[in-house]
Amino acid sequence: MAAQTLIPTFEANLILRGKIECLTGLHIGGSKEKMEIGGVDSIVVRTPRNDYPYIPGSSLKGKMRHLLEYILGGVGEPVFQSEKDSIQDALGNVSRKKEIVRIFGAGASEREIEKNRLENIGLTRLVVRDAMPDDETIKMWDNLGSDAHFTEYKAENTIDRLTSAANPRFIERVVEGSMFDFEMVYSVFAIGEDYVAETNTDLKNLLMGLRLLESSALGKSGSRGYGKIRFHLAPPVWLKRPDYEQGTENWKTARKPLPEKLLGLDEVQFEHIQYK
Hints:
Layout: E1 9-22, H1 57-71, H2 87-90, H3 98-104, H4 108-113, H5 115-118, E2 126-128, E3 132-133, H6 135-142, E4 152-159, E5 166-173, E6 179-190, H7 195-215, E7 229-233, E8 237-240, H8 241-246, H9 249-253
């Protein structure tokens, strides 16, 4: 007998906003349309509208997922690309672990192959926006006095161990001290009787993912000093159906400019919420 398909019901959104501070130079690579003799070897991703460097939401979400897969044991539970794959074929793929997929999602083809394991897991819970530079950072970039465009060029060398010949390269980086505005939205859906406990587990893991990211690195070359970041958060805001229907003060708070005083990860708490 087939399992009953459960229909998810929206309960609430957690709006998590704040700033990402670059404690060291940050490189998240972009595409280079033309090669220049003597030019930079690896450029950063930029917005097409004003050419400002930014932090893609996909980079934040992907690195958090990667770190949580390891700490939650999800690396050993990979998504299978084919029903004929063995575990050895699948190792290295993203995780099918429910605690991971609930937060970060899985593709339609992956859900189809893993339908017995991922049935009734519902919609992807976490939305991560692209993080754009704040006004103070843009002013700082304008006063850099650098040949780079809002960034810095870091010279690196590869040395041949036998001949000692140097192979220099130049990496573009967002400069230390840059700040980016970010927003994450975690959605709560009532699916089954255990959704409150599952939600609190997700929120605990989401906070752990942010902590892990501060101890790791974002973007390229973290082992060589790039990409150390710190989160500064506004108090989390919970929005339920009446907030969206009536445009309440709570809804307005989630849309206002960030408060002057922001919280560190040691000060913020947003798990163990009861909805019933």
